Amino acid sequence: MSTTHTTSPQATRREGGRYRQSPLFWMLTGIVGVGLASSLASVGGVVAVVGAIVAVVVYWAVMRHVARRSMPEIARPGAVTHALAGGAIGFGFITVSMLMLLTEFSFTERPGSALSITASMAAMSLGAAVTEELIFRGLALQALEKLCGSWAALAITAALFGGLHLANPDATPWSSTAIAIEAGVLLGAAFLWTRNIWFVVGLHFAWATTLGLIGIPVSGHASEGLMTTSPTGPDLLTGGEFGLEASIVPVVVSLLIAIPMLFAAHRRGNLVPMRRGHR
Question: What does the pLDDT read at residue 13?
Fold first, then answer.
């Protein structure tokens, strides 16, 4: 004699709800959505700004309706203050690194409208900063730390961030490692410290915009900034054709910034411990 088991509609809905709220599920759903928006952000100009706005809307929708969680990391109150604070750190990071390497570059003023060049550079940097931070810090880091804790999530997202930059022009295994440390670790640490996407976006935006305006390639992509800047020193110091981000100097400077951020994140109780299996 056989017994047939049926599942009630309520149980089915509960199972579906748990599935949608799985960190991996909402992470992948969000990455696909924000990734599509990033295609707009990569166009540049006004379209890049629109792409950034679309990416934020997609992120909100995924977190609200798929992950079903609150989103203090993109709260509007204090967003400008956080972005400006992050921007100050990003600008200082590149400025300090460049001041240590001035003798390793040659600089030539580039003709053109300074306002037009700056606006174009800022729009492109904004689009990239918003979409990349929503994907890596908003989605990937927060989802992975629910599964394996903050330290593992930081390491994984940093490695992924660096690895993906291997596809960029003039990339090398060293440039990818440098990006993983100075971008993956620093930006991840900045998020864990503040738990605020706008702070990290500001840091990322100021970093990329400052590099671009100087005329140094941003992660291998040539920059038509206010100056034409050419490396004259060894690649280990200048980063070569890939740009300053492949220099040992900003790698060291980024760690000097990131380590205190991680200590502060620990003191604030912002780090999620590694989950242990149940016996």
Answer: 46
Nearest to 68 by CA among 11, 26, 114: 26
Can you tell me the distance from the alpha carbon of 18 to that of 248, in angstroms, rounded to the nearest whole number? 45
CA 205 to each of CA 10, 82, 185, 197, 244: distance values in angstroms, whole numbers, following the listed order: 46, 13, 16, 12, 16
41-77 pLDDT tens trace: 778 789 999 999 999 999 999 999 999 999 999 999 9
Q: Work out the average pLDDT over 119-131.
A: 94
End-to-end CA gap in the chain: 36
- Check if the beta carbon of residue 131 is closer than 8 Å to that of residue 55: yes
Q: With contact defined as beta carbons under 8 Å apart, do 186 and 158 qualify?
A: no
Please state the pTM of the whole predicted model: 0.90
Are 238 and 105 contacting, i.e. CB atoms less than 8 angstroms apart? yes
Query: Could you give the CA distance from residue 90 to residue 208 in angstroms, rounded to a whole number?
Result: 8
As a whole number of angstroms, the distance between CA 173 and CA 246 comes to: 10
DSSP letter string over 154-171?
A: HHHHHHHHHHHGGGSTT-
Q: Token match 């952000």: residue?
A: 41
> Cα(52)–Cα(169) distance, rounded to whole angstroms?
24
**Residue 255 structure tokens:** 């760690």
Residue 233 φ/ψ, nearest 5 degrees: -95, -175
Amino acid of residue 130: V
Encoded tokens for 18: 């748990």
Separation of alpha carbons 71 and 81, rounded Å: 18
